[in-house]
Amino acid sequence: METFFLSRLRPLFDVIAEQRELYVPHSEEGHFSFTRYDSSQTREIEFNELRLCQPIKQFLFPLREIAAVFPEPTESPDIKPFAIYGLKDCDLRAIQILDKVFAEEEFCDPSYLQRREKMLIISSDCYNPSESCFCTMMDGDVFPQAGYDLNISKIKDGYIVQAGSDKGLLLLRENESLFADVPHAALSERDENRVQARKQLENMLADYQFDTPINHIVNEGCQSDIFDNEAKGCVECQACTRICPTCHCFYLYDEKQKDYYQKMKIWDSCVRLDYATVAGGENPRKLLTNRTLHRLMHKFVFFLDRYGIQMCVGCGRCIDACAGEMNIRDVLKKLYEESKVNNSKLKNGQKSVPTD
Do the domain assignments include residue 80? Predict the structure, then answer.
C-alpha cells in the first residue's frame, strides 16, 4: 500500500473528525487512555509510544448493551461512524480474535458487525514497549502487520502514514493536498526505529525463551501444582479478564421496564466463582485453582484448537491490572521449566511428578 508524509497530524485528524467520531490517546502519569478528539482544542495530538491502558473491545463489544426487547422487537442501535487512533499490533490481532467469535459462521452478532463496519482503524508503531509487554512471544511485533486502515509511524520531522486498506487509501487520496512525498531517509529512520524497539522488547524478554510451543507447555502442565500456588495470590477481582482485549465472555439477564422487558448483555469473567454454576447448583470450577487453570487453557489451548489462532496477544494488560501480582509470563516459564524436569526424568526412567 502507498505511503505519505505528514509534518503534523492535526490537519488529517480534523478531516477525519468532520466525518466521524474520533478517539485519540491522552497521556496521564505515563499511561495512555482514549479520549474524544476535539478539533477546537489547540494542543497537539499525542503519539502513544506503547499500547493504551484500555482494551479495544470496549468499542466493539460494549460492557453493557441491550440484546433483545419484549414484546416489541429490538431496534438496531444507532451506531455512528467512528475512528480509533493509536492501536498497536496487539490490538489489531485482538480484533482478529474477536472477529472469530462475533463475526464468523452462523454465530454473528449484528451489533458487533455494525460497529466493525463503521470503524476506521488508525494504528501506530510501538517505540517504547512497556515492561509488561510480551507480544513477540505471541507471534506479534512492535509495528502492525495487517488489519489497519491507516498506520502512523513517528519520525524526527513528522509522520509516515501508510494505507492498509482500500478505505484508508481512499481517505488519503481524497486529501492528497495535506501530504508530501516520503523522503527516502524517513523510511530508513522508521525501519531503524522498529529494529530498536524490537531489540528493546527482546532484551526485556530474555528470561522467557521457550523451545516448546506454548499450547503444549500449558496442556502438559494442566495437572501441575503451579496452578495451586498461583491461585493463592488471586483476589478474584476479575481485572485480568476485564482489561484483556480478547476475553469475550458475557451473560444475559432480564430487566423489567415500565411496559416492557429487556434482555441485557454484560461482560462476564471465568474467574468469577459462579461463572460455571449450572442449573442444579453444581459448579465444576468451584475451586479458584480450577478457574486459574481454565483461563490459561482457554487462552492457549482451547481457542487455538477451535479457531486455529492463539487467544493471547501478549499485550501485558493483565500483568499491569492484577491485584495479586500474577505474571502470566512467569506462570508459563514455571510450567516450561517443570516440563523440562519431568521430561528429563522420563528419559532417565524416573516417575514424573508435579513440583511445588
Answer: yes
